[in-house]
Specification:
Blueprint lengths: L1 H7 L3 E6 L3 E7 L6 H6 L5 E7 L2 E7 L3 H15 L18 H8 L9
Antiparallel strand pairs: 1-2, 2-4, 3-4
Length: 113
Amino acid sequence: MAQIVKTYSKSAFLFISDGRKVTGTARSVDGFDVVAALESVKDIFIKYGGHNQGAGFTLEDSKIEEFLSMVDKNLKEAVVGNTLLIEGELKISDIVVDFYKQVEATKPYGRGI
């Protein structure tokens, strides 16, 4: 995810759902405090935490639309200029050896890399 943020200069969110709960991670660009954004709707989370440029969270699957609205609103308020919105769904069946190798090729992960 750090490579996505670095390449596109946009915050990135990744979600995994088991049909009941959604677990997610977020990485942010300078100037967007991802934990403050999560804090603004803290009541929807089972748990969350992190720092201004990275966070993790868990919420009920039924709350994902509310969460996405919050992310959209906060990012629109935080970003000036061009934006890139990527939406998609990755099914567990999509995670094959080639996909895994592509993800591994983005290592190392983390800020400042």
